[in-house]
Write a structure and sequence with these properties.
Oligomer: single chain
Strand content: 25-35%
Distance between the termini: 66 Å
Strand order of the largest sheet: 1-2-7-6
Structural class: mainly beta
Radius of gyration: 23 Å
Shape: rod-shaped
Length: 139
């Protein structure tokens, strides 16, 4: 059996050219800005813990659409230089970050709650009650 392989002359010259096209968003220094989450399920609700270090409470947005949850936030850079002072190195990141995921059950937006404390966003997402089917009488 004959094997065919695709020859790409640019792969050797520019190996990382398109490698990062679908990577996580990055800040100006190249560090990834990502939201790490833990999701737990109980019979009536989901509990989500999302790490958002350095994000102010007013810069966090949570959207619920059916069973899809979207979390976004923005870390803003604050310039606090004093006269006669210069920055030698700055490793703190800034920029926007977002995360979206789907859960197995539809969510009730009206009964869900969000709490933010010490850089951790806690979402208590109530499941919508499933209405049972209607039994039809056969005539």
């Amino acid at each position: 059996m004959t094997r065919m392989s695709l020859y790409d002359p640019f792969a050797e010259v520019f190996p990382e050219l398109f490698r990062g096209a679908f990577a996580a968003p990055r800040n100006t220094e190249g560090n990834a800005l990502e939201i790490k989450v833990d999701v737990k399920e109980a019979p009536a609700e989901y509990t989500v813990h999302a790490e958002l270090p350095g994000v102010a409470k007013d810069d966090i947005h949570v959207e619920i659409d059916g069973n899809r949850v979207s979390i976004s936030g923005e870390v803003k850079r604050v310039n606090e230089q004093k006269d006669g002072e210069r920055v030698l190195r700055s490793e703190r990141y800034y920029g926007s970050m977002a995360r979206s995921f789907a859960l197995a059950s539809e969510l009730d937006e009206a009964k869900s709650v969000a709490k933010f404390e010490n850089g951790v966003l806690e979402l208590t997402l109530k499941k919508k009650e499933v209405v049972g089917g209607k039994k039809l009488q056969i005539a």
